[in-house]
Amino acid sequence: MSYIDYIIQLNNTVSYAIARLETLEHKILFVSDNDDICGVVTDGDIRRYLLTGQPLSAPVMDAASVNPIKLSGYHEAKAREMLKEYNIQCVPMLDRFGKLHALVFDGETIHRESESADTPVIMMAGGYGTRLQPYTAILPKPLIPAGGVTITEQILNRFKKFGFYNFTLVVNYKKNLIKSYFSEVDTGANLSFVDEETPLGTGGGLWVFKGRFDSPVLVTYCDSVIEADYGEILERHIQDGNLFTMVCARKKLEIPYGVIETDETGALCGLTEKPCFEFLTNTGFYVLSPEFFEQIEDNKFALITDIVERCRKQGGRIGVYTIEKECFIDMGQREDRRSVENKLGK
Predict the structure, then answer these.
(1) Residue 86 CB coordination number (10 Å)
(2) How far is it, in rounded angstroms, from Cα 290 to Cα 176?
(3) Are the C-beta atoms of 40 and 15 separated by less than 8 Å?
(4) What is the DSSP string of 225-280?
(5) pLDDT, tens only, 12-31
(6) DSSP for 180-205?
(7) Distance (Å, rounded) from C-alpha 286 to C-alpha 270?
(8) Do 3-111 and 121-344 show the same overall fold?
(9) Domain 121-344 is in which class?
(10) What superfamily would CATH give domain 3-111?
(11) How far apart are CA 216 and CA 291, in angstroms?
């Protein structure tokens, strides 16, 4: 089913809604008024309406519940929490323009079809995956299972939801195994590979893309999923005139102890009980303007954070796009894999 199958127009009748509900796996329809969601109709709403004896030829809003619960922004995990909190069947998610772009059910999300974007995506997939040992002694990190598919496929699927289908994977460790796997799997995306002959760090391997692009590109690593509107991130980068945009997750760290401060003599000069610190963390999701690639030395080891800092000192605008901590799923951690997979959904 497409998401459009769950949309009914304001001028449709109750009888039309009944016929539509019969065809749907999830017995729910959202009433649209010029792309704005103004009501929701379930089979329960229909039964209650029929008991009133009113005509089936009446407008569908006569049977609908008004002001349905909605979620602004792209946050599937939060939407699923709302399903349980409000004991409802579906949470519609609205894009930055207030228009419906996804319907979140328990265990399934149905997205609005996005127009295909020409913007390429580079995935840095050549690392050794030391945080996932001993699994990565056998499988390279891009092929580690997560939520029924590989980590890489989880990430590709997120990009495809926003119309991004063109991917280049920079590979090194067990690269032939990665290429072999994706030669047998239909990802629904256009995949190509660039071999990194020697490890060049988190940024050095990008040197091979110098001169290839005349517009911004997206860069990600193969161990994190970002729940955000990727189109909006790209748009913000362009609007702000950034050389480099870093997607950062808001984090809070609570120290479960009293924190002590002393002076040089060892005397107590301050005590804070269980302090909480808030900061932004790098998610490994970036937007790069073509000029950024010119700052990378050819075939030299480099951390991307060092390149970014050098550009900043030279006057380049480095932007930060902030998301909430729940929107950043780090799949590179070996601990609590089940928790990570639960967050991924389908």
Answers:
(1) 10
(2) 29
(3) no
(4) EE-S-HHHHHHHHHHHT-SEEEEEEEEEEE-SSEEEEE-TTS-EEEEEES-EEEEE
(5) 999 999 999 999 989 999 99
(6) HHHHH---SSEEEEEE-SS--HHHHG
(7) 40
(8) no
(9) alpha beta
(10) CBS-domain (3.10.580.10)
(11) 9
Structural domain boundaries in the chain: 3-111, 121-344
Residue linked to tokens 């519609």: 92
In degrees rounded to 5, what are phi and psi of residue 49? -65, -45
Give the residue among 210, 209, 200, 207 at the shortest CA–CA distance from 298. 207
pLDDT of 342 reads 56
Using left for φ > 0, alpha for ψ between -120 and 50, and beta otherwise, residue 299 falls in: left
Q: pLDDT (tens digit, 9 = 90+) per residue, 220-275? A: 998 888 988 898 999 999 999 999 999 999 998 888 999 999 988 999 999 999 98
Residue whose structure tokens are 């804070």: 272
What is the tens place of the pLDDT at every residue in 53-72? 999 999 999 999 998 899 98
pLDDT along the chain (346 residues), means of 10: 86 94 92 86 93 92 91 86 92 86 87 80 86 79 86 92 93 92 92 91 92 95 88 94 96 90 91 90 95 94 95 95 88 58 55
Strands 258-262 and 268-273: antiparallel
DSSP structure string for 105-163: ETTEEEEPPPPPB---EEEEE----GGGTTGGGTS-GGG-EETTEEHHHHHHHHHHTTT
Residue that is written with structure tokens 């190509």 in the block: 192
For residue 32, how many C-alpha atoms fall within 13 Å in the half-sphere facing its CB?
Answer: 16
pTM exceeds cut of 0.90 = no
User: Tokens in use for 195?
Assistant: 């071999």
Q: What does the alpha-carbon distance between residue 286 and residue 155 come to, in Å, rounded to a whole number?
A: 14
Q: Which residues contact 196 (CB under 8 A, 6 or more apart)?
A: 126, 170, 171, 172, 205
